[in-house]
Amino acid sequence: MKRIHAAGAVATALAIAGLSLTGCSGASPAQGGPVTLTFWHGYTEADGKVLDKIVADFNAHQKKVRIKTVTKTWAVIGDTLLTALSAKQGPDLVALPAENLPIYAGKHAFQKLDDLYATSAVSGASLNPNAVDMVKVDGAAYGAPLGFVPLSVIYNKTLFQKAGITSFPTTWDEWVADAEKLTVDTNGDGTPEQYGLALPDHATVGNGVWPSLFYAGGGDLVKGSKSVIDSASNIDTLTFWAKAVQERKISPTGLDGIASDKLFSSGKAAMEVGGPWMASVATENKIDYGIAGIPEGPKGQAASAIGISAAVTSQASAAQKAGAEEFLAYLYSKPVATAWSLGSGWPPLRTDIPASDVSSNPVVAALTPLTPAARPLLPGVASSSDVLAALDEATQKALAGGDPAAVLKAASTTAQTALDK
Protein backbone atom coordinates (compact mmCIF):
# COMPACT_ATOMS: atom_id res chain seq x y z
CA MET A 1 0.00 0.00 0.00
CA LYS A 2 1.46 3.34 -1.03
CA ARG A 3 1.68 6.03 1.58
CA ILE A 4 2.75 9.67 1.75
CA HIS A 5 6.13 9.97 3.42
CA ALA A 6 7.54 13.11 5.05
CA ALA A 7 11.22 12.14 4.95
CA GLY A 8 12.71 15.26 6.49
CA ALA A 9 10.41 15.25 9.50
CA VAL A 10 11.02 11.54 10.06
CA ALA A 11 14.78 11.99 10.01
CA THR A 12 14.58 14.85 12.50
CA ALA A 13 12.34 12.92 14.87
CA LEU A 14 14.61 9.89 14.73
CA ALA A 15 17.63 12.01 15.56
CA ILE A 16 15.85 13.32 18.64
CA ALA A 17 14.72 9.80 19.54
CA GLY A 18 18.29 8.53 19.51
CA LEU A 19 19.20 10.94 22.27
CA SER A 20 16.32 9.80 24.46
CA LEU A 21 16.83 6.05 24.25
CA THR A 22 18.80 5.79 27.48
CA GLY A 23 15.74 7.03 29.34
CA CYS A 24 13.62 4.14 28.09
CA SER A 25 12.50 2.00 31.01
CA GLY A 26 11.18 -1.14 29.30
CA ALA A 27 11.93 -4.62 30.55
CA SER A 28 15.66 -5.43 30.62
CA PRO A 29 17.02 -8.62 29.08
CA ALA A 30 19.39 -10.82 31.00
CA GLN A 31 22.97 -9.63 31.44
CA GLY A 32 25.72 -11.08 29.28
CA GLY A 33 24.10 -10.06 25.98
CA PRO A 34 23.56 -8.78 23.54
CA VAL A 35 20.31 -10.64 23.04
CA THR A 36 19.55 -11.13 19.35
CA LEU A 37 16.06 -11.48 17.91
CA THR A 38 14.51 -11.63 14.46
CA PHE A 39 11.62 -9.34 13.53
CA TRP A 40 9.38 -10.19 10.56
CA HIS A 41 7.21 -7.40 9.14
CA GLY A 42 5.21 -6.76 5.98
CA TYR A 43 5.90 -3.06 5.45
CA THR A 44 7.27 -3.34 1.92
CA GLU A 45 7.30 0.29 0.79
CA ALA A 46 8.58 3.58 2.24
CA ASP A 47 7.02 2.71 5.59
CA GLY A 48 9.25 -0.36 5.81
CA LYS A 49 12.38 1.70 5.29
CA VAL A 50 11.34 3.99 8.13
CA LEU A 51 10.66 1.04 10.44
CA ASP A 52 14.03 -0.48 9.57
CA LYS A 53 15.66 2.90 10.36
CA ILE A 54 13.92 2.97 13.74
CA VAL A 55 15.24 -0.53 14.48
CA ALA A 56 18.76 0.46 13.37
CA ASP A 57 18.63 3.52 15.62
CA PHE A 58 17.51 1.37 18.53
CA ASN A 59 20.36 -1.07 17.91
CA ALA A 60 22.93 1.72 17.66
CA HIS A 61 22.12 3.44 20.94
CA GLN A 62 22.22 0.51 23.36
CA LYS A 63 24.22 -2.70 23.68
CA LYS A 64 21.79 -5.13 25.30
CA VAL A 65 19.53 -6.01 22.37
CA ARG A 66 20.08 -6.53 18.64
CA ILE A 67 17.08 -6.78 16.32
CA LYS A 68 17.32 -8.05 12.75
CA THR A 69 14.40 -7.12 10.52
CA VAL A 70 13.19 -9.38 7.73
CA THR A 71 10.72 -7.88 5.25
CA LYS A 72 8.08 -10.21 3.79
CA THR A 73 4.65 -9.55 2.36
CA TRP A 74 1.72 -9.85 4.75
CA ALA A 75 0.49 -12.83 2.72
CA VAL A 76 3.81 -14.66 3.04
CA ILE A 77 3.87 -14.06 6.78
CA GLY A 78 0.38 -15.52 7.04
CA ASP A 79 1.27 -18.52 4.91
CA THR A 80 4.56 -19.44 6.60
CA LEU A 81 4.48 -18.28 10.20
CA LEU A 82 3.07 -21.39 11.89
CA THR A 83 5.23 -23.76 9.86
CA ALA A 84 8.35 -21.75 10.62
CA LEU A 85 7.57 -21.61 14.32
CA SER A 86 6.95 -25.35 14.51
CA ALA A 87 10.43 -25.86 13.02
CA LYS A 88 11.87 -23.24 15.42
CA GLN A 89 12.94 -21.18 12.43
CA GLY A 90 10.38 -18.41 12.75
CA PRO A 91 10.69 -14.88 14.07
CA ASP A 92 10.89 -13.87 17.71
CA LEU A 93 8.88 -10.73 16.99
CA VAL A 94 6.35 -10.46 14.16
CA ALA A 95 4.01 -7.82 12.75
CA LEU A 96 0.70 -8.91 11.25
CA PRO A 97 -2.82 -7.63 10.53
CA ALA A 98 -4.54 -7.34 13.89
CA GLU A 99 -7.55 -9.45 12.91
CA ASN A 100 -5.24 -12.47 12.61
CA LEU A 101 -3.81 -12.14 16.11
CA PRO A 102 -6.61 -14.08 17.91
CA ILE A 103 -6.10 -17.05 15.59
CA TYR A 104 -2.42 -17.37 16.45
CA ALA A 105 -3.03 -16.68 20.12
CA GLY A 106 -5.54 -19.53 20.14
CA LYS A 107 -2.87 -21.82 18.70
CA HIS A 108 -0.43 -20.79 21.45
CA ALA A 109 1.90 -19.23 18.88
CA PHE A 110 2.17 -15.92 20.77
CA GLN A 111 3.14 -15.00 24.31
CA LYS A 112 1.12 -12.73 26.59
CA LEU A 113 2.42 -9.18 26.87
CA ASP A 114 0.49 -7.88 29.86
CA ASP A 115 3.77 -7.11 31.61
CA LEU A 116 4.70 -4.72 28.77
CA TYR A 117 1.73 -2.50 29.58
CA ALA A 118 2.68 -2.47 33.26
CA THR A 119 6.09 -0.88 32.59
CA SER A 120 6.36 2.84 33.30
CA ALA A 121 7.52 3.52 29.73
CA VAL A 122 4.34 2.09 28.22
CA SER A 123 1.79 2.80 30.97
CA GLY A 124 2.74 6.47 30.71
CA ALA A 125 2.75 6.58 26.91
CA SER A 126 -0.91 7.62 26.50
CA LEU A 127 -1.54 4.84 23.99
CA ASN A 128 -4.89 4.91 22.22
CA PRO A 129 -7.04 2.62 24.41
CA ASN A 130 -8.99 1.34 21.41
CA ALA A 131 -5.74 0.35 19.72
CA VAL A 132 -4.74 -1.55 22.87
CA ASP A 133 -8.13 -3.28 22.98
CA MET A 134 -7.45 -4.43 19.43
CA VAL A 135 -4.62 -6.74 20.61
CA LYS A 136 -6.48 -8.38 23.50
CA VAL A 137 -7.89 -11.90 23.54
CA ASP A 138 -10.06 -12.94 26.49
CA GLY A 139 -8.83 -9.88 28.37
CA ALA A 140 -5.12 -10.61 27.94
CA ALA A 141 -2.78 -8.64 25.68
CA TYR A 142 -1.16 -10.88 23.08
CA GLY A 143 0.29 -8.06 21.04
CA ALA A 144 1.27 -4.42 20.79
CA PRO A 145 -0.33 -2.04 18.27
CA LEU A 146 1.88 -0.85 15.41
CA GLY A 147 -0.87 0.91 13.49
CA PHE A 148 -4.48 1.92 14.05
CA VAL A 149 -6.26 3.99 11.41
CA PRO A 150 -9.95 4.81 11.07
CA LEU A 151 -11.76 4.40 7.79
CA SER A 152 -12.67 7.81 6.44
CA VAL A 153 -14.31 9.40 3.41
CA ILE A 154 -12.12 10.62 0.57
CA TYR A 155 -13.91 13.05 -1.71
CA ASN A 156 -13.33 14.82 -5.01
CA LYS A 157 -13.21 18.56 -4.32
CA THR A 158 -13.63 19.48 -7.98
CA LEU A 159 -16.88 17.53 -8.28
CA PHE A 160 -18.12 19.07 -5.02
CA GLN A 161 -17.47 22.55 -6.40
CA LYS A 162 -19.29 21.78 -9.66
CA ALA A 163 -22.30 20.60 -7.64
CA GLY A 164 -22.25 23.77 -5.52
CA ILE A 165 -21.46 21.90 -2.29
CA THR A 166 -19.26 24.07 -0.09
CA SER A 167 -18.82 21.90 3.00
CA PHE A 168 -18.63 18.20 3.71
CA PRO A 169 -21.83 16.62 5.12
CA THR A 170 -21.93 15.79 8.81
CA THR A 171 -25.02 13.53 9.07
CA TRP A 172 -26.33 10.56 7.10
CA ASP A 173 -29.25 12.59 5.74
CA GLU A 174 -26.91 15.33 4.52
CA TRP A 175 -24.53 12.69 3.13
CA VAL A 176 -27.22 11.03 1.04
CA ALA A 177 -28.64 14.39 -0.09
CA ASP A 178 -25.20 15.54 -1.26
CA ALA A 179 -24.52 12.18 -2.90
CA GLU A 180 -27.76 12.60 -4.85
CA LYS A 181 -26.66 16.07 -6.01
CA LEU A 182 -23.36 14.57 -7.13
CA THR A 183 -25.04 11.77 -9.09
CA VAL A 184 -25.31 12.71 -12.76
CA ASP A 185 -27.39 10.85 -15.37
CA THR A 186 -26.83 13.03 -18.42
CA ASN A 187 -28.78 10.98 -20.97
CA GLY A 188 -31.55 9.98 -18.58
CA ASP A 189 -31.19 6.25 -19.23
CA GLY A 190 -31.29 5.39 -15.53
CA THR A 191 -27.57 4.59 -15.34
CA PRO A 192 -25.60 7.57 -14.04
CA GLU A 193 -22.34 8.52 -15.69
CA GLN A 194 -21.20 9.87 -12.32
CA TYR A 195 -22.16 8.61 -8.87
CA GLY A 196 -22.17 10.57 -5.66
CA LEU A 197 -20.77 7.67 -3.65
CA ALA A 198 -18.96 4.42 -4.35
CA LEU A 199 -20.47 2.18 -1.67
CA PRO A 200 -19.19 -1.40 -1.96
CA ASP A 201 -21.66 -4.00 -0.81
CA HIS A 202 -19.11 -6.82 -0.37
CA ALA A 203 -15.35 -7.42 -0.04
CA THR A 204 -14.86 -3.95 1.39
CA VAL A 205 -11.75 -2.32 2.87
CA GLY A 206 -10.76 -4.66 5.67
CA ASN A 207 -14.47 -5.57 5.69
CA GLY A 208 -14.93 -2.47 7.82
CA VAL A 209 -17.23 -0.25 5.75
CA TRP A 210 -20.51 -1.81 6.81
CA PRO A 211 -19.51 -2.31 10.47
CA SER A 212 -18.76 1.44 10.51
CA LEU A 213 -22.30 2.16 9.35
CA PHE A 214 -23.82 -0.34 11.78
CA TYR A 215 -21.87 1.17 14.70
CA ALA A 216 -23.10 4.67 13.82
CA GLY A 217 -26.64 3.31 13.67
CA GLY A 218 -26.35 1.98 17.20
CA GLY A 219 -25.68 -1.64 16.28
CA ASP A 220 -22.83 -4.12 16.61
CA LEU A 221 -21.75 -7.45 15.15
CA VAL A 222 -20.77 -9.61 18.10
CA LYS A 223 -21.29 -9.22 21.83
CA GLY A 224 -19.37 -11.67 23.94
CA SER A 225 -19.77 -14.92 22.02
CA LYS A 226 -23.14 -14.05 20.49
CA SER A 227 -23.90 -12.67 17.04
CA VAL A 228 -26.08 -9.56 17.06
CA ILE A 229 -25.92 -8.96 13.33
CA ASP A 230 -29.71 -9.14 13.05
CA SER A 231 -30.43 -6.51 15.71
CA ALA A 232 -33.20 -3.98 15.13
CA SER A 233 -30.61 -1.20 14.84
CA ASN A 234 -28.74 -3.05 12.10
CA ILE A 235 -31.97 -3.76 10.21
CA ASP A 236 -32.76 -0.03 10.30
CA THR A 237 -29.26 0.84 9.08
CA LEU A 238 -29.28 -1.64 6.21
CA THR A 239 -32.78 -0.55 5.22
CA PHE A 240 -31.72 3.11 5.15
CA TRP A 241 -28.71 2.49 2.90
CA ALA A 242 -30.42 -0.03 0.65
CA LYS A 243 -33.16 2.50 -0.07
CA ALA A 244 -30.60 5.25 -0.70
CA VAL A 245 -28.84 3.09 -3.28
CA GLN A 246 -31.90 1.56 -4.90
CA GLU A 247 -34.22 4.59 -4.97
CA ARG A 248 -31.83 7.54 -5.18
CA LYS A 249 -29.19 5.82 -7.34
CA ILE A 250 -26.30 7.33 -5.36
CA SER A 251 -24.06 4.29 -5.91
CA PRO A 252 -24.05 1.31 -8.24
CA THR A 253 -24.74 -2.10 -6.76
CA GLY A 254 -22.46 -5.11 -6.89
CA LEU A 255 -19.28 -3.16 -6.07
CA ASP A 256 -16.45 -4.78 -4.21
CA GLY A 257 -13.65 -2.76 -2.65
CA ILE A 258 -11.43 -2.86 -5.75
CA ALA A 259 -14.23 -1.74 -8.08
CA SER A 260 -15.09 1.01 -5.63
CA ASP A 261 -11.49 2.26 -5.70
CA LYS A 262 -11.50 2.27 -9.50
CA LEU A 263 -14.77 4.19 -9.66
CA PHE A 264 -13.37 6.93 -7.44
CA SER A 265 -9.91 7.05 -9.01
CA SER A 266 -11.43 7.38 -12.49
CA GLY A 267 -13.49 10.40 -11.39
CA LYS A 268 -16.79 8.54 -11.79
CA ALA A 269 -17.62 8.67 -8.08
CA ALA A 270 -17.36 11.77 -5.92
CA MET A 271 -16.87 9.98 -2.58
CA GLU A 272 -15.60 6.69 -1.22
CA VAL A 273 -15.07 5.20 2.23
CA GLY A 274 -11.49 3.96 2.37
CA GLY A 275 -8.08 3.97 3.98
CA PRO A 276 -5.19 6.45 3.87
CA TRP A 277 -3.60 4.86 0.81
CA MET A 278 -6.44 6.28 -1.31
CA ALA A 279 -4.77 9.68 -0.97
CA SER A 280 -1.81 8.54 -3.06
CA VAL A 281 -4.20 6.91 -5.54
CA ALA A 282 -6.05 10.22 -5.88
CA THR A 283 -2.77 12.09 -6.35
CA GLU A 284 -1.64 9.65 -9.05
CA ASN A 285 -4.91 10.27 -10.88
CA LYS A 286 -4.64 14.06 -10.49
CA ILE A 287 -7.73 14.29 -8.26
CA ASP A 288 -7.95 17.28 -5.92
CA TYR A 289 -9.11 15.39 -2.84
CA GLY A 290 -10.18 15.98 0.74
CA ILE A 291 -10.44 13.58 3.68
CA ALA A 292 -13.31 13.72 6.18
CA GLY A 293 -14.81 11.61 8.92
CA ILE A 294 -17.67 9.27 8.11
CA PRO A 295 -20.79 11.38 8.78
CA GLU A 296 -22.78 10.78 11.96
CA GLY A 297 -25.52 8.19 12.01
CA PRO A 298 -28.53 8.15 14.36
CA LYS A 299 -26.27 7.21 17.28
CA GLY A 300 -23.28 9.40 16.49
CA GLN A 301 -20.04 9.14 14.57
CA ALA A 302 -18.19 5.85 14.34
CA ALA A 303 -15.62 4.19 12.15
CA SER A 304 -14.08 0.78 12.00
CA ALA A 305 -10.29 0.83 12.22
CA ILE A 306 -7.69 -1.10 10.30
CA GLY A 307 -4.90 -2.30 12.56
CA ILE A 308 -1.45 -3.85 12.56
CA SER A 309 -0.08 -5.50 15.68
CA ALA A 310 3.27 -6.83 16.81
CA ALA A 311 3.52 -10.10 18.76
CA VAL A 312 6.25 -12.01 20.56
CA THR A 313 6.22 -15.59 19.33
CA SER A 314 6.31 -18.77 21.36
CA GLN A 315 9.85 -19.55 20.20
CA ALA A 316 11.28 -16.41 21.85
CA SER A 317 13.20 -16.98 25.08
CA ALA A 318 12.52 -14.94 28.20
CA ALA A 319 15.50 -12.73 27.37
CA GLN A 320 14.31 -12.25 23.79
CA LYS A 321 10.81 -11.41 24.99
CA ALA A 322 12.28 -8.81 27.35
CA GLY A 323 14.34 -7.40 24.50
CA ALA A 324 11.30 -7.19 22.25
CA GLU A 325 9.41 -5.38 24.99
CA GLU A 326 12.26 -2.89 25.40
CA PHE A 327 12.12 -2.17 21.67
CA LEU A 328 8.34 -1.71 21.76
CA ALA A 329 8.67 0.68 24.69
CA TYR A 330 11.19 2.62 22.62
CA LEU A 331 8.81 2.65 19.66
CA TYR A 332 6.15 4.21 21.88
CA SER A 333 8.42 7.01 23.14
CA LYS A 334 7.01 10.30 21.93
CA PRO A 335 9.63 11.28 19.30
CA VAL A 336 9.81 7.78 17.86
CA ALA A 337 6.02 7.40 17.81
CA THR A 338 5.85 10.71 15.91
CA ALA A 339 8.48 9.54 13.43
CA TRP A 340 6.69 6.23 12.92
CA SER A 341 3.38 7.99 12.34
CA LEU A 342 4.93 10.19 9.67
CA GLY A 343 6.70 7.23 8.10
CA SER A 344 3.76 4.85 8.10
CA GLY A 345 1.23 7.46 7.02
CA TRP A 346 -1.09 6.43 9.88
CA PRO A 347 -2.18 8.50 12.90
CA PRO A 348 0.03 8.46 16.01
CA LEU A 349 -0.55 5.61 18.44
CA ARG A 350 -0.18 8.08 21.31
CA THR A 351 -3.17 10.28 22.05
CA ASP A 352 -0.94 13.09 23.35
CA ILE A 353 0.60 13.73 19.91
CA PRO A 354 -1.55 16.45 18.29
CA ALA A 355 -2.25 16.76 14.58
CA SER A 356 0.02 19.82 14.49
CA ASP A 357 3.03 17.60 15.32
CA VAL A 358 2.42 15.53 12.18
CA SER A 359 1.30 18.41 9.97
CA SER A 360 4.16 17.76 7.52
CA ASN A 361 2.07 14.80 6.34
CA PRO A 362 -1.37 16.24 5.47
CA VAL A 363 -3.04 12.81 5.35
CA VAL A 364 -1.87 11.94 8.85
CA ALA A 365 -2.87 15.39 10.08
CA ALA A 366 -6.37 14.92 8.62
CA LEU A 367 -6.81 11.44 10.10
CA THR A 368 -5.45 12.13 13.58
CA PRO A 369 -8.55 14.03 14.85
CA LEU A 370 -10.77 11.21 13.54
CA THR A 371 -9.04 8.47 15.53
CA PRO A 372 -11.03 8.85 18.80
CA ALA A 373 -14.19 7.69 16.98
CA ALA A 374 -12.44 4.59 15.60
CA ARG A 375 -13.26 1.13 16.92
CA PRO A 376 -11.30 -2.10 16.46
CA LEU A 377 -13.08 -4.60 14.24
CA LEU A 378 -14.09 -7.75 16.14
CA PRO A 379 -11.15 -7.69 18.58
CA GLY A 380 -10.37 -11.06 20.11
CA VAL A 381 -12.74 -12.95 17.77
CA ALA A 382 -10.83 -15.81 16.14
CA SER A 383 -13.62 -16.48 13.63
CA SER A 384 -13.85 -12.84 12.54
CA SER A 385 -13.32 -13.68 8.85
CA ASP A 386 -16.32 -16.04 8.93
CA VAL A 387 -18.48 -13.44 10.66
CA LEU A 388 -17.53 -10.79 8.11
CA ALA A 389 -18.10 -13.19 5.21
CA ALA A 390 -21.65 -13.78 6.45
CA LEU A 391 -22.17 -10.03 6.72
CA ASP A 392 -20.80 -9.53 3.19
CA GLU A 393 -23.40 -11.87 1.77
CA ALA A 394 -26.18 -10.04 3.60
CA THR A 395 -25.22 -6.54 2.48
CA GLN A 396 -24.78 -7.65 -1.12
CA LYS A 397 -28.21 -9.28 -1.17
CA ALA A 398 -29.91 -6.32 0.52
CA LEU A 399 -28.52 -3.74 -1.92
CA ALA A 400 -29.62 -5.99 -4.77
CA GLY A 401 -33.21 -5.86 -3.45
CA GLY A 402 -33.33 -8.48 -0.71
CA ASP A 403 -35.24 -7.94 2.54
CA PRO A 404 -32.79 -6.47 5.10
CA ALA A 405 -34.36 -8.26 8.06
CA ALA A 406 -34.31 -11.64 6.32
CA VAL A 407 -30.75 -11.42 5.01
CA LEU A 408 -29.40 -10.22 8.36
CA LYS A 409 -31.18 -13.04 10.18
CA ALA A 410 -29.57 -15.57 7.86
CA ALA A 411 -26.19 -13.91 8.28
CA SER A 412 -26.49 -13.95 12.06
CA THR A 413 -27.25 -17.66 12.04
CA THR A 414 -24.19 -18.34 9.89
CA ALA A 415 -22.01 -16.13 12.06
CA GLN A 416 -23.20 -17.86 15.23
CA THR A 417 -22.27 -21.22 13.81
CA ALA A 418 -18.74 -19.93 13.24
CA LEU A 419 -18.58 -18.39 16.72
CA ASP A 420 -19.67 -21.68 18.30
CA LYS A 421 -16.83 -23.69 16.73
Report on the architecture of this protein:
Helix 2 links the parallel strand 1 (35-41) and strand 2 (65-71). Helices cover 43% and strands 14% of the residues. It has helices at residues 7-20, 46-60, 74-86, 101-106, 114-118, 120-123, 129-133, 157-162, 172-181, 209-216, 232-248, 257-265, 278-284, 318-331, 334-344, 362-367, 384-399, 404-420; strands at 35-41, 65-71, 93-97, 136-137, 140-141, 144-150, 152-156, 222-223, 226-227, 271-274, 289-292, 303-312, 374-376. The chain has 2 domains: 7-150 and 306-376, D-Maltodextrin-Binding Protein, domain 2 (3-Layer(aba) Sandwich); 152-304 and 380-420, D-Maltodextrin-Binding Protein, domain 2 (3-Layer(aba) Sandwich), CATH 3.40.190. Helix 1 (7-20) packs parallel to helix 2 (46-60). It is of the alpha/beta class.
List keywords for this structure.
421 residues; D-Maltodextrin-Binding Protein, domain 2; transport; ABC transporter substrate-binding protein; globular; disordered N terminus; 6-stranded mixed beta sheet; signal; alpha/beta
Layout: helices, strands, pairs:
Blueprint: H1 7-20, E1 35-41, H2 46-60, E2 65-71, H3 74-86, E3 93-97, H4 101-106, H5 114-118, H6 120-123, H7 129-133, E4 136-137, E5 140-141, E6 144-150, E7 152-156, H8 157-162, H9 172-181, H10 209-216, E8 222-223, E9 226-227, H11 232-248, H12 257-265, E10 271-274, H13 278-284, E11 289-292, E12 303-312, H14 318-331, H15 334-344, H16 362-367, E13 374-376, H17 384-399, H18 404-420
Parallel strand pairs: 1-2, 1-3, 12-13
Antiparallel strand pairs: 3-12, 4-5, 6-12, 7-10, 7-11, 8-9
Helix pairs in contact: 1-2, 1-15, 2-15, 17-18
